[in-house]
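tokens incoming
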């Protein structure tokens, strides 16, 4: 998972400096699906691949930190096989002689 650089915040109440994020935060992760032969057995009845996970976080404000929470995440991707048909000859780009 790629996280943005956190800000360091000193919490005198617990006498610790902790990494924090303020406002909106964008997390990133690369997903490699695989070859068509690897993907097909993992598709559901609608021709989709579903990836599921969760995000565990703890929100705080200027006065308190709240109980940590875990939020379920789910992404659904529609699988479409590669178009292996050739372009019609009249539509193909041909080099000039």
């Amino acid at each position: 998972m790629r996280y943005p650089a956190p800000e360091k915040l000193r919490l005198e109440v617990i006498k610790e400096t902790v990494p924090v994020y303020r406002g909106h935060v964008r997390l990133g992760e690369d997903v490699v699906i695989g070859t068509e032969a690897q993907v097909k057995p993992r598709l559901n009845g609608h021709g989709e691949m579903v990836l599921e996970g969760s995000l565990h976080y703890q929100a705080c404000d200027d006065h308190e930190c709240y109980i940590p929470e875990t939020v379920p995440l789910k992404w659904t991707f529609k699988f479409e096989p590669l178009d292996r048909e050739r372009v019609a000859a009249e539509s193909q780009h041909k080099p000039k002689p």
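note: Residues 7-79 form one domain.
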